[in-house]
Amino acid sequence: MFWYVYSGLGSRVFRVEVLRSTYDGMRDVVEGLVKWLARNIGVDGLPYVIGVVDKYAKSLTRGLYLAFYELARRSQVSFTYDTEVEVRQLLSEVVGSAVA
Fold it and tell me: What percent of the chain is helix, strand and coil (3-state, nearest 5)?
């Protein structure tokens, strides 16, 4: 089962998915959560709680990527040009977020 929820920002929507068995067993709870998510949309068009989790997940992923890159670099692994460009971009994001 799924719902498309209009964000109120142009044509932006987000999708809420749930297993049919979960919906069948907890219909009122699921419908209540979908309504709650729809009422708690942030400025980015996502429910606030999802936006917060997404921000921290991206930060964690970025940090892990850079840590593994550094481990591989110290082990003298060769990288493609695209990987080097991506790492420079990620490092500039980290520096930018530290300044902000």
Answer: 65, 10, 25
Task: Write the secondary structure of 11-40 as one string of H (helix), E (strand) and C (coil).
Answer: CCEEEEECCHHHHHHCHHHHHHHHHHHHHC
CA 70 from centre of chain: 24
Q: How far is Cα 47 from Cα 38, in angstroms, rounded to an integer? A: 7
What six digits make up the tokens of 58?
């991206």
pLDDT digits (tens, 9 = 90+) for 60-99: 999 999 999 999 999 999 999 999 999 999 999 888 766 5
In the block, residue with structure tokens 């994001």: 93
User: How many beta carbons lie within 10 A of that of residue 46, not counting itself?
Assistant: 20
pLDDT tens sequence across 37-54 = 999 999 888 999 998 999
